[in-house]
What we know:
Immunoglobulin-like; 5-stranded antiparallel beta sheet; Cell wall anchor protein; transmembrane helix; membrane; transmembrane
Amino acid sequence: MNLLKSKLRRLTAVAAGTLIGLSGVAFFASPASAHDSFVKGSAACDTTTGEWVVTWEVNTDNGNEPGAENYRFLKVESFPTPVEGIVHTPDDADPAFPHKSNEPLVGTQRVGGDAKFAKLEVQVKWSDEWIQYDHKKGFVKFHGTCSKEETPKPDAQLASSCEGVTVTLANGKDATADAVFTIKGSKDFEKKVTVKAGDEPVAVEIPAENAEKVLVFEGENRKPILVGKWEQPADCTPAPNFEAGYEVTCDSLIFDIDNSKGKTEVTAVFSPNKGEKQTLVVKAGEKKSVTIKGEKGLVVNATINGEEFEPVKWDDEEKPADCDATPTPTPTESTPGEGGGLPVTGPVAGSIAGGAALLLAAGAVLFMLARRRKVKFTA
Length: 379
């Protein structure tokens, strides 16, 4: 037996085995160091729903290998619920590798508030056909339970108009409690409004004089959720402030316009069915009237600043009830005496005559006043 030859063969076999083993390690290890993926997650409690919200992030590293610019998921498994945004890639997907390498991919998982943990496992294949056989896993443990809280979602908006402001109070659709608003304005203006969860917004009107500063609070919070004030729009004109009426007398209709408190001009048009139309222009601070002679069947249509009013009639029903009556003279009593006596003449007679004339004039004025009827002119 040739011991030298035997030892040489064994040495050669060991060297060959070592070389083959090192080659295998190099073959399998090198690509693994070039392609890799990582999974991490974090959780937060959503008090509006009482659920844990887990945010998962998958990061990939293609090691700048040519052709590995994109990847797909061969496997995605999660517990206890699916992850939105991170899903298995179908075999017929177009594109086949929809995700960009070296860019984080984020997904969201919602889990019941009494759950203890959540997990995510993925397997990645790159566009250069490299498959990561070592699946990557992420694990998140929940501490305690996630409970639903009764909370409002208050919101307030302010809009100015010519007369004041409108404050719109809302309680978000995801609110789980009523929102109790307190509105404070100038000159001690204050109002409380409750908007229930899920109800439509509520509008509150505040006059301009109470809206020099507007604050809106919700609940016991001392910090206002809205601070605003009234700002007059550029196209505003003062609102008319006048009084209109008419009088029915025995021989006419008298229309009155009192614009003594107004700040804008008032134009009134009176259109009788008998006679000519009359227009009355009353400036701010003025009072004016127009008289239309009464006739049988007379009807007058009136418009003030373009607004139509009820027609006014002059007839027997509208006229004062005593228009056909005539004053009865008061008889003069003679001084009793024999033979009736003679008329009184001289200065004493003149005084008596003057006094009688004065009484007659006063009676006529009172009679005419009694024959007038004043009516408020309304739309």
